[in-house]
Amino acid sequence: MSALRKISRREFMQRTGQAGGLVFALTFASGCTPADEATVPAARELASVAPNVYVNIRNDGIVEIYCHRSEMGQGIRTSLPQVIADELEADWDKIELIQAIGHEKYGDQNTDGSTSIRKHFDLLRNAGATARDMMIAAAASMWGVPADECVAREHAVHHAASGQSAGYGDLVDAASELPQPESAEFKSPDDYKYIGKPMDTIDGMAFTTGAAVYATDMTLPDMLYASIERCPALGGTVASLDDTAARAVAGVVDVVRMPEPTTPPLFNVLGGVAVIATNSWAAEKGRKALDIEWDLGANAVYSSDSYKEQLIASASAPGNAVLSRGDADVAAASVHEAIYYAPHLAQAPMEPPAATAKVNADGTCEVWACTQDPQTARGTVAATLGLEPEQVTVNVTLLGGGFGRKSKPDFIAEAAWLAREAGKPVKVQWTREDDIRHGYFHSVSAQYFRAGMDEDGATTTWLHRTSFPSIVTTFAPNIPGPQPNELSLGAFDSPWDVPNLRIEACDAPAHLRIGWLRSVCNVFHAFGACCFVDELAHVKGRDPKEHLLEMIGPARQIDPADDGAEFGNYGQDLAQHPVDTGRLAAVAEKVAEMAGWGRELPEGHGLGIAVHRSFLAYVGTVAEVSVDADGKLTVEDLWMCIDAGLVVNPDRVLSQMEGAAIFGMSLALHGEITAKDGSVVEGNFDTYPMCRMSEVPHKIHAHIMESDALPGGVGEPGVPPVAPAIVNAWFAATGSRVRELPLRNAGLV
C-alpha cells in the first residue's frame, strides 16, 4: 500500500473532477475558453490584427476578447464576449477570453454599481462591429469587390456574387494593412445570435473541478506570507509593542510596524503590526503571540447602542430639505408616522481579501489580487510606494464574491508595502475576522416617515427624513451626513404620486470606514419606504398590493431635479434611463400575479409585497412567510420579477435574482454589525450569520420582463425589495409590525 498523504480540498476537487465522472457527473458546453493577459506573450509567434483594445484576431482563426471587468460569480466573463462576438459574427468555439490587467486603455474597469453591461453595452457592440467591418474591408480589398457586397457570417466573410469566402484567420494579413474603422453600424436585435440567449458560463468547469485560480491560490518563488494585527478602533495606533514571542515562532522572518492610518482613511493601509513568515500558519501563530497596547484614538467613544439613540434623534428632528414638492406640512385630515432603523452591515464575501505583491529590482511592482477595481488598485499601490501608475501592474484573479468590498484596495496596498519592506514577494491574506472587523461597512441608518391623508384616505403629504453616516467620510473629513449621490439611491427617485412631498437629510457622524455594499443606500431606503407604504395600507384598510399601485399612480416619468434634487441617476442620462413609474407598477402587477396574490392562505401564513427601482432596473418581490407555535418566522416562498431592459444572458440574470434573494434574506434575518468602545463586536459567521440552507425558501421564483429598454443593472437591484417584502408578509401573518432589522433581534428567527 502506498503511503497516505494529506491533500487540500482544492486538490481533492481537481482529482475527483478528473476521475472520469466518478464523483461528478457534470458536463459543460464547449466554446469560449479563458486565459489571463499576464500569460499572453508580448511577442506572438502567430500573426494577428487588433481593431481595438478589446479584440485581437489571430491568423489561426482564434479571436481573443479582452475582459476589462472582474468576475465574481456574476458571469461577466461570459456575458461580455457574448456582446462582442454577436456583433463580430464570431464562432463561439473560436473565442479565447483574456482577463485584462488594470490599465486606463480599457476605460472604466470598476466592477461595481451593476455597470458592466449597462454602461458598456454600446462600447462592447462597437468593439465587435468595428472588428467585423475590418474583416469585411480586408476581404473586399483582397477580392477587389465593393465592401457593401460582402457580409460577415459564421466567423468568415462571404461574397455572394462571386461565391468567394474567407475565414477570419485568412484575412489577418490583409486586415493588418488597412486603417482601423472609426465607427460601425450595429446589427438589428432581430439578428442577435448570442445576445439575449442563455449561455453556459465559460468558467463553469474551472469552478466545479477546483481549477479556478483565486487570489488566495497565488504562489510565487520565495514568497513570504504576512498576517496583520490591526487596531480594534478606526484610526488607532500602536502605543507599545513586545514582539519577542512572535519572533520566536518557527517560520517567522520579521515583525514590521505598518504605516499609521490616515485621516480620512481613503483606501490606504490601515496600520497595525505585520508578522512575516515562510508560511501562513507561522504568520498567524506569530500574530497571535504579539503583545500590543493600543491607543484607540477618538473613535473609542463609538458604541452602537448610544449611537442608535443619537441617529434616531437626528432623524426625528428637522433636517436639511434636499427635495421639495408642494408643502409637506400642509394640514391633513389624519397623520401617520413611523421610524425605521437598519444597522451596519458587512459584505462578508466567501473569499476574504487577499493579494500577492512583488517589487522588482528596478522599483516596479506587480500584484495579483481579487480586485473589483484594478485601476484604483494600481493608483493606490503607486501612491503607497511613491511610484508612477505605469510602474505598477495589477493582475486580476477570480473573485470569490465581492459585493463592493473588493473595490477598495487597502489590502493590495498592504501587500505592496510589505513586499518592498521584505525584499521578496509577499502575500497578505485577511482572515474572516479581519474582514468582518476591519472592512468598509454599509452605513447604519434611521429614517423618519410621516404621511398625511385626506378624508377619503388619499395620501396628500409625504415627509421622509434619512440619517446615516456618509460614504464620503471615507474620502473627505467633516462630512456631516447624507450626500446627494447617496440620496439618489432610493430617496430622490421616490415614485409616490403625492402632491406634497419633502425629503430631508439629517446629520450623522462616521466612526467606522463606510463603504458600499450590494445596492448601497437602496437597502435601507427601500426597507423604510416600502414598509411604511404597507403601514398606510393597513391604516386605510386597503389591500397592500392595490394600495401600492395607488401610491405609484399613473405611468409617468419623474425628474427629481424638478423638485430641487441633485439627482445622479447612476451616472446615466435621464432621457435614456428615465424614472418610469409605469415599469415599476408593471413589475408589481406581474410579481403579484406570479405569487397568486389574493389567494386563500393557510393559517399563520402571510404575503408581503415590495417594489424598488435601483441601478436603472425595476424589481418587484413577494414573500410568503409562516409563523410557528413559538412565534418564529419561516420564509416559505419568494417571487421576484425584474425589468432590466434588454438582458444579455437570461441565465445569469435569473441566477443574480436568486443570489440577491438569499443575500437580502441574510441581511433581513441576521445581518448586523455592532461596535463597543470603537471596536466591532462581530468576527465570524457565528456572530455575523448568513442564511443557512434550512432557512432558504422552497423555491425562489424569478421572472424577467421582456423589454426593449436600454440595459439596466442586474447584480444589485434584486436586494432592496427582499427585506420589506418579508417584513410586510410578517405583518400580514401576525398583525405585528417590525420596524428594525435584523429580525433575529426581535426573536423572530
Tell me which CATH architecture of the largest domain applies here: 2-Layer Sandwich
Q: What is the CATH topology of the largest domain?
A: Aldehyde Oxidoreductase, domain 4
So what's the overall shape?
globular
Unreliable residue runs: 1-29
How many strand units? 30
Number of domains: 3
Broad CATH class of the largest domain = Alpha Beta
The fraction of residues in strands falls at 15-25%
Radius of gyration: 27 Å
Helix amount, in percent?
25-40%
Average the pLDDT over all residues and give the rounded result: 94
What features would you describe in this structure?
This protein folds into 3 domains: 33-209, 2-Layer Sandwich (Aldehyde Oxidoreductase, domain 4); 215-298 and 353-429, Aldehyde oxidase/xanthine dehydrogenase, molybdopterin binding domain (Aldehyde Oxidoreductase, domain 4, 2-Layer Sandwich); 304-346 and 440-540 and 547-746, Aldehyde Oxidoreductase, domain 4 (2-Layer Sandwich). Residues 1-29 have low confidence and may be disordered. Strand 20 and strand 21 (459-467) form a beta hairpin. The strands form 8 sheets. Strands 11-12-9-19-16-17-18 form a 7-stranded mixed sheet, with helices on both faces. A 5-stranded mixed sheet has the order 1-5-4-3-2. A 5-stranded mixed sheet has the order 14-22-21-20-15, with helices on both faces. With 749 residues, the chain is α+β, with helices and mostly antiparallel strands. The chain is built from 17 helices and 30 strands. The protein starts with 8 loop residues before the first helix and ends in a 15-residue tail after the last helix. The protein is globular and about 80 Å long.
